[in-house]
Amino acid sequence: MVGTDDFAALEKRGWGEEDTASAYAKDFARASAMAVPCLVSETRAGPGKHILDLCCGHGIVAAGLVKAGASVTGLDFSPAMLRIAREMVPQAEFVEGDAMAMPFPDASFDGVSMGFGMPHVPDAPAVMREARRVMKPGTYLSYSVWQETEKSAFTYVFKAIGVHGAVEVTLPPGPGASDYADPERAFPAMQAAGFDDLRINEVDSRWQVDRPDAPFDFFLEGTVRGGALLRPQPAANKAAIRTAVSEIVVANHGRDGPWDLPIPSVVVSGRAV
Ligand SMILES: C[S@@+](CC[C@H](N)C(=O)[O-])C[C@H]1O[C@@H](n2cnc3c(N)ncnc32)[C@H](O)[C@@H]1O
User: Over the chain, what is the mean pLDDT?
Assistant: First the structure.
């Protein structure tokens, strides 16, 4: 393994970096934005509701919740992300804190959303239990996660890393990026945390790109997990991964751009018992 962080430390340090936060907000989140309408509706956000948005990042879900008329508190542990969020969504309140130990009293919210946060916490079931603790009974939790399907920009990049990455560059042990996109894992965990009325919705999220290697740069610059696997690569491996991403995109989506690349996700939701 290159680097000395464990998974939790890697995530905290990585998302705290200004460059990663702004690259995520600028490019990567063009796809996460497409899950916002589903998160907002599955959380039953609306006027008179106070919704907590976990792992709020640069405030993209918070913006959707505000637009639906809810009053919103966003929580994230990255000051760099929170700076962007406060600027982007001045109507919401943003709090610095850890989703695994939230600084809120029991039963204080009318719903909780979490856009693409689940794979980043070391213990997702613990976050589900914390979310349940701060929610009023009968209100809804919804969270989005990328799906690892064959035709996904996500899969293209990690496949290219698997083939061309240097063996010494690995991630510290941690949860899989799409673990809780699978209802067989997600539903029992949600049930055990105190949720019923469980649902899963597929979201056809996409990136419009004018270079077939654009997903390589989006993962390199705007993600912690992708950055930790791509940044330490020797130059030859990095170049081979970039070329492989281009080739996979062209093979799956044609030679001529611009390309409309799928990066599908799911929104899982449940009602606090
Ligand atoms: C992939 S971004 C998602 C941003 C946004 N919610 C979206 O839908 O695009 C993940 C966010 O989770 C935050 N995060 C990761 N682990 C966290 C934790 N344990 N507590 C609070 N925030 C955390 C990161 O700082 C980052 O802003």
Answer: 97
Q: Is 156 in the pocket of ligand 1 (CB under 6 A)?
A: no
pLDDT tens digits, residue range 69-108?
999 999 999 999 999 999 999 999 999 999 999 999 999 9
* Ranges under pLDDT 70 in the chain: 1-4
Assess contact for 28 and 223: CB atoms under 8 A: yes
- Which pLDDT belongs to residue 3? 60
Q: Is 70 in the pocket of ligand 1 (CB under 6 A)?
A: no
Single-letter residue type at 25 = A
Paired strand residues for 265: 146, 203
Task: Classify 154 as helix, strand or coil.
Answer: helix
- Using the mean position of ligand 1's atoms as its centre, give its distance from the Cα of residue 21 in Å: 10
Query: Where do the domains of the chain lie, and which CATH numbers do they carry?
Result: 7-272 (3.40.50.150)
Q: Is 120 in the pocket of ligand 1 (CB under 6 A)?
A: yes
HEC assignment per residue over 242-265? HHHHHHHHHHHHCCCCCEEEECCE
Does 55 contact ligand 1 (Cβ within 6 A)? yes
